[in-house]
Design a protein that fits this description.
By secondary structure, this protein is mostly helical. The protein folds into two domains: 161 residues, Arc Repressor Mutant, subunit A, CATH 1.10.10.10; 37 residues. Helix content is 46%, strand content 10%. It has eight helices and eight strands. The strands form three sheets. Strands 1-4-3 form a three-stranded antiparallel beta sheet. Helix 1 packs across helix 2 and helix 1 crosses helix 3. The longest helix has 33 residues. Keywords: Coiled coil.
Length: 234
């Protein structure tokens, strides 16, 4: 990593940010279906509630984001003997072991962007209980005081009393962009997924594609042999 990036991995993209936030959230709110299947994760990423911005991600976008997160050691593919369906979980502890209250705060910031302590206390309640605002601020302070800070306090907006906080897994905050008034729109954001994957990931995908092609060819050959065998008795 460069001197400008203190993270032990490259900054997260918008898609990666949404995926990681969803995995942390669903572990806390729906443990009975966690780890998540790809379909469940796509639905979680595209939720219209508790998300800002609202996204429209397809399987390809989420799969690519998962592969990149796995390369960054922030997500894992889980193999379960009782199920043939691939499932995924976060592996935040590889880089950032956090107690539940701080993981909840990080998840909300990943899912919704900058928020005040009051907003975070209300929205985190479904994942972790905070006795009062002081308890919330104490956890935020700990996230900011880490050797690798995960949260930063933003300058107060004009006319606003409370400061907002932002997560730093996506890299340094662009204060100029935050100062620009956002256009209000309820339309979901469509994301271009033409991202560059690490060479290791590209090689793994290419190998999987080759295996699938070989299996498809073998199945086609078996079908031809079966058809020829049946024709002998017609």
């Amino acid at each position: 990593m460069s001197d400008e990036n203190p993270l032990p991995h490259d900054p997260l993209s918008l898609v990666e940010t949404r995926i990681l936030g969803c995995l942390i959230e669903k572990e806390a709110t729906t443990p009975d279906i966690y780890p998540l299947t790809l379909n469940s994760l796509v639905n979680a990423c595209n939720q219209k509630s508790n998300r800002a911005p609202v996204l429209e991600l397809d399987d390809e976008a989420v799969s690519a984001g998962l592969e990149s997160l796995r390369h960054k050691r922030l997500a894992l593919l889980v193999t379960q003997t009782a199920s043939r369906v691939a499932k995924f979980k976060h592996s935040l502890d590889n880089h950032y072991p956090l107690p539940n209250p701080q993981a909840a705060i990080l998840a909300e910031l990943l899912l919704r962007g900058p928020q005040t302590a009051g907003e975070l206390r209300t929205r985190c309640e479904r994942m972790s209980h905070f006795e009062d605002l002081d308890a919330m601020r104490d956890e935020i302070e700990q996230l900011m005081a880490r050797a690798t800070p995960l949260v930063v306090e933003l300058p107060r907006q004009p006319g606003k009393k409370d400061a907002r906080y932002a997560q730093l897994l996506s890299g340094p905050i662009d204060l100029e962009a935050l100062a620009t008034p956002a256009t209000s729109s309820s339309a979901p954001v469509k994301v271009d997924v033409s991202m560059t994957l690490p060479a290791e990931a590209e090689a793994r995908i290419a190998a999987l594609e080759t295996t699938v092609a070989e299996q498809a060819s073998a199945i086609a050959a078996l079908r031809e042999e079966l058809a020829a065998f049946r024709s002998q008795f017609e």
